[in-house]
Amino acid sequence: MLDNFAHISLPNLDVQPEYKFLDLPQFNRPEMFNCVEKLLDNHIAEGRGNSICIRTFEETWTYQDLYEKANQIAHVLVDDLGMQSGNRVLFRSANNPMMVACWFAVLKAGGIVVATMPLLRSKELTTVIDCAEISHAFCDSDLAEEMNLAKSDFLKKVSFYRNSDLEKLMESKPKTFHNYHAKSDSVALIGFTSGTTGLPKMTAHYHKDILNICEAFPQYALQPTQNDVFTGSPPLGFTFGLGGLVLFPMYFGASTFLIEKPSPDLLLKAIQDYKITICFTAPTAWRIITTKVNDFDVSSLRKCVSAGETLPLKVWQDWYEATGLKIIDGIGATEMLHIFISSNEENRKPGATGLAVTGYEAKIIDAKGNELPRNEAGRLAVRGITGCKYLNREDKQREYVENGWNITGDIFRQDEEGYFYFVARGDDMIISSGYNIAAIEVESVLLTHEAILECAVVGLPDEERGMLVCAHIVLKEQHNKGDELKTEIQNWFKNNAAPYKYPRMINFVEALPKTETGKIQRFKLK
Description:
Elements: H1 5-9, H2 35-45, E1 52-55, E2 60-62, H3 63-80, E3 88-92, H4 97-108, E4 112-116, H5 122-132, E5 136-140, H6 144-149, E6 157-161, H7 165-170, E7 187-193, E8 201-206, H8 207-212, H9 217-222, E9 229-232, H10 239-251, E10 255-257, H11 264-274, E11 278-281, H12 283-290, E12 303-306, H13 313-323, E13 327-332, E14 339-342, E15 355-356, E16 360-365, E17 378-384, H14 394-400, E18 401-402, E19 405-414, E20 420-425, E21 429-432, E22 435-438, H15 439-446, E23 452-462, E24 466-475, H16 483-496, E25 505-508, H17 522-525
Parallel strand pairs: 1-10, 3-4, 3-5, 5-6, 9-10, 9-11, 11-12, 12-13, 24-25
Antiparallel strand pairs: 1-2, 7-8, 13-14, 14-15, 16-17, 17-19, 18-19, 19-20, 21-22, 23-24
Helix pairs in contact: 2-3, 3-4, 12-13
């Protein structure tokens, strides 16, 4: 029996993006295929099962190990948990091998992956579950507390791993599994993206999308081989991390090194001890590890990738001076699945994000959709092998897709040679240390605090984090304002929402600037 929630929730064809370049040989996929076959199963069939696939500081898995565990988990899903094809399965985990095995298992069994950030709290998890009508969840037992607090009528079963019930169920299962025969345009994953409204948006991607991004940015910028070892800091719940730490290495038969809590020192230790060749992380992390790099041997590195927020030129220069390596900057989006504008060895200019990678085209447009002259700042429009497909949000779909082009919400300019330069964000999204934080989400949490009457949240430039979450708060009792209350509100926030969203700056004000119609004028607060 097929659960067709995702299919019937897709936007109408007239508001879907226009796909380009799919007729190129590398992007021309058969009508029927499951992306797991190329990413995992083919390595076994072609005799590479004993090759190292995943390493951590504690363990090593070969491709055969991952293949067998994924197959056993797929049997658990179908035989014991009653998962049907098309069901959505939530993931709550740090970056570890079992999460990867579960990810492949869900697709093998015909399900749809919905990975979340491990820092999300129960209220945020419940919102995700209700929006995607999630029936099953896999959760690392170390993160069980908030998962157990998430309640929804849609959620039928939560399975925990790491010395828990999932491993026990796997013990008796066969190590082979007949994969679900998916269509290339069947939904394989749903990524949740923050927005400027309180309700998060679900963006869907097909089996063919997952494979096609592996032929785009990696081939353009990395040229991976089976000898490469990937690592990085982004969570696998973030499509930047999923691509860089799972999809790209496994598409090319390379290996990945996963770090559950990737501090700068651990990242550098992994690079040194395990001879990492390709590293993905955010500009904030590149800035910090630059100050520590002389204490480690990073001579194995050949490619360094930055995304999640704009890469300051100074960070690029400092890293290059310290190591002789040139960081590859890139811009991607959950709506587009991964990076679509970037640089490589041949195409690189100081301060520029780069050019549209193979499989994409981009332009700068005005408010009416007209292409702007070179060097004039405007809205970034992109189209290619992937595109935005919001589920059950036709209003937001019409905002993101215009005349077949994906409008990312970023302000860019393009020079005479075609290079794209980041100028600013076009909305109230705050990008801090690589995390996308919607101002409205922070405000919604703050307004539940008993001392707060009104608030407005903006992002302020910060050299270390890119942007800081800054809250302007009107108190119910003005005489209570002080540093002690600021600290109390910050600590309270961390206990009620994902800690990375908390306001690092709080300003107590007597009133918020507003228009005559009562709308808050955030530009004045910035």
